[in-house]
Amino acid sequence: MYLKMVSLETSGSEGLSSKNIFIGAALAITGNLLISISMNIQKYSHLRQAEEKSETHYLKSKIWWVGLILMVLGEIGNFSAYGFSPASLVAPLGTTTVIANAIIAVVFLRERVRYQDVFGVTLAIVGAFLLITFSTKEFSELTGQELASYLRQWPFLVYLALEVALFCILLIAQWRYDLENVVVFLLLVALLGSLTVISAKAVSSMINITLGGNSQLGHPLFYVMLIVMITTAIAQVKFLNRAMQSFDATVVVPTNFVLFTISAIISGIVLYKEFYGLTFLEIFMFLFGCILSFIGVYYITSDRKQEESDEQLLLTNADLFPGFLSLSSSKLIAVQPNNMLTASHVEYPMLPSKPTYESTADAEQQVEGGT
């Protein structure tokens, strides 16, 4: 009788855990979808004001506010997903943003359909399916006390020490030798992103437990993790924007997605033991799903040319950043006009790529002609 009761409890908890994981996956997909739609709505608002030569500030546009509200809802969904699902699952589902933007570019912005877009979207969707199917189903929310015990375990302490050391080495090397390398910038983003993911998952889980009746708001770790989440999110924007200012978006976007996702998966494995209990086949299929997502993002974002006309506002790869709060916050900045005082200023801050050889040569010829 006792064994039967234990069996029922175990099967019930496993069913609840699986249900929560699917809820988290749905929240992540919906959140990223809303973020993608919101960015394009805000772009449409700026484009409309530019075409009408309106002097009204974009903050007075109802369409712009609709976009902002959708972005906030998307961020809430993305954040909440970490409280229901493993971080190793939520992070790769950032492909939803890339897929949605590719579809919006074709349907609403009238961009031509490219074979590589269809191929990339197909790979990304198959990858997302494998991620959800083969992700760990043994997932539980952690209280502040349980989280404290996880943080004291030696594998995480070693991982944290190595991450901090690598971050400091990269930062010093970049500052001392003035390195303009896309991998260096995005490694800094990924290292910060792993801490953002760890802290976001902790804060989201503790909020869920609190809403369930067991308050965690009195535990000091809740506030420590909240500060870490906000600080690392803000710091990511700096290095991400540095990368976008120096390199083409077609290079930055897939590289950032791969490095950020890998860092999120590793941090979830080390701290939250998210691969614990999985079979070799399940781990292989999960990682295969990640690889398909990486390849899909590469094909969708590659060979896209940024429209240089000031009278058109087209979707660019500068906005195709999957990830958590910091990455979407940089998107919010990217779709606002440079001139904050007037909406009639039609220069939109699509983050500039590195100047090409032709443009540099043209500039030199103009200087010579002027002299």
UniProtKB/TrEMBL annotation:
Record keywords, A-Z: Membrane, Transmembrane, Transmembrane helix
What are the subcellular locations of this protein? Answer: Membrane
Supply one GO CC term from the record: membrane
Q: Which domain of life is it from?
A: Eukaryota
Where are its TM segments located? 20-42, 63-83, 89-109, 118-136, 156-175, 182-200, 220-239, 251-272, 278-300
> Principal place where this protein is found?
membrane
Q: How does it sit in the membrane?
A: Multi-pass membrane protein
Q: Which InterPro entries match?
A: EmrE-like, Mg_trans_NIPA
User: Which Pfam family, any one of them, does this sequence belong to?
Assistant: Mg_trans_NIPA
Tell me the GO molecular function terms.
magnesium ion transmembrane transporter activity
Q: Which family does it belong to?
A: Belongs to the NIPA family.
From the Swiss-Prot or TrEMBL record, give the protein name: NIPA-like protein 2
